[in-house]
Design a protein that fits this description.
Layout: E1 17-22, H1 24-27, H2 38-48, E2 54-57, H3 65-79, E3 83-87, H4 90-94, H5 99-115, E4 119-123, H6 133-150, E5 154-155, H7 181-192, H8 203-217
Helix pairs in contact: 2-7, 3-5, 3-8, 5-6, 5-8
Length: 218
Amino acid sequence: MTVTLGWSWVQADEAPKVIVLGDSLSAGYGLQHPQAGWVGRLQQRLSRQGYPHEVVNASISGDTSSGGLARLPRLLQQYRPTLLIVELGGNDGLRGLKLGRLRDNLGSIVDIARAAGSQVILVGIRLPPNYGVAFVERFLGVFQRVAKDRGVPLVNNLLAGFDEDRESMQDDQIHPRDEVQEAMLNNVWPTLLPLLTPAGESDHRADQGVERAIGQQL
């Protein structure tokens, strides 16, 4: 199990928060330095480009959409993020959990986060081809449907460009190697960039919404 909270390249009290709610793909599983995964690189890129945001990596290896949904209220209360990036569902698919439950969980995550004043990005993932073309497409369709129904931006496939390249994957053929972490960030960046706001613009909205959202869930 891996969880990394509150990497502090910028001062927490001053920076708008971006939470990445994910699983092992975002936790840096199997990397020599987990902080050099795509989420850590996101913080570095934001800082280099002058954005004040602090990235909170709330990703846990092995987590499912149900686990992320259960953890979300406390994260919202603690960090009051202006933006939530949701990278969950891969383990649901790998374990053969019901796609209807995945759809409902992702929808609830979006609803709770937006009620707390956070913008939301959904990040999809393409399962390995040995799961069968039909199931792989149905699985991807869950993310597309939730994004469309909720009107939130979607990164269609975090692993786009190398998901079928065996050399880009670790020995388990599921987790990406160090060399493609920058490509993962590049897959997210175009969707993320339009949602970034200067410090303080979204803070008031988050402060107003988070108590209401947390109160409904606790």
